[in-house]
Amino acid sequence: MAIKQYRPTSPGRRISSVNTTKELTKKRPEKSLVIIRKEKAGRSWGKIAMRHRGGGEKRFIRVVDFLRNKFDVQATVTALEYDPGRGARLMLLAYADGEKRYSLAAEGVKVGDVVISSKNPIDLQVGNRTTLRNIPVGIEVHDIELQAGKGGKIVRGAGNSTQLRALEGDYALVKLPSGEVRKISAECMATVGRVSNPDHNLVRWGKAGRSRHRGIRPTVRGKVMNPVDHPHGGGEGRNSIGLPYPKTPWGKHALGVRTRTPNKWSDKFIVQRRYESKR
User: Fold this and answer.
1) Does residue 158 contact residue 182 with C-beta atoms inside 8 Å?
2) Rounded CA gap, 61 and 106, in Å?
3) For a designed S-S bond to 230, which of 125, 176, 186, 225 qualifies (C-beta 3.0 to 4.6 A apart)?
4) What's the CATH number where 92 sits?
5) Phi/psi of residue 37, nearest 5 degrees
6) Is residue 138 a part of any domain in this protein?
7) Quick count: other Cβ atoms within 10 Å of Cβ 142?
């Protein structure tokens, strides 16, 4: 995978870039594994839960198998495909019994490769999936479960991976891409290798229209609003925010605030936080 830049035929095209698609082997998705994404526009029960969301292209989301629970059944990679719902590529797996499923493609997987998912020790080739207990310390893994049998929940972004730090009894110590060190049950499954398309974070969207197609609406700066609308608003000309720290429209700290629920049940599994709070 690489980044492609076009000739600067317009101001928006001049600074924009796209992912190359040379590695993709199939343009049309598997019809039986496609659903239409319901547009929620950032709302929960009708109330705005996430600002600046709405519109965008109609998306046909691929049904991705994060469980990989067909154990000890070999699957052949028949295609590498694009998914509009994520930056990573997908691999279409054809199992020996005829069933087809989508799964996150690992970096280096090619069409024709045979992969397997098992709870027993297996060959640690890229794309294979097994429990953390069966993976040696130092091996790169992704798509990790937080609870055994619930499917992969973390380390699923394009180009992400993590290394197993240690095995301590019933738990494995894993350092996540955020820097957090966490204890995860050794019976949880993980896929060997790194998530595909590592250059996805280098894409420059270039113009507002591409963001609108992704469902991202414009964001207005607080300092150009009126005082009634935002704590940063008001003044003549170009003024600073006039406050010791940035605030949200509701007067709360905008930066450096922990958003994790205090005294959460899973706090006991966190060995080291991803950052040290200054307050």
Assistant:
1) no
2) 19
3) 225
4) 2.40.50.140
5) -75, 125
6) yes
7) 25
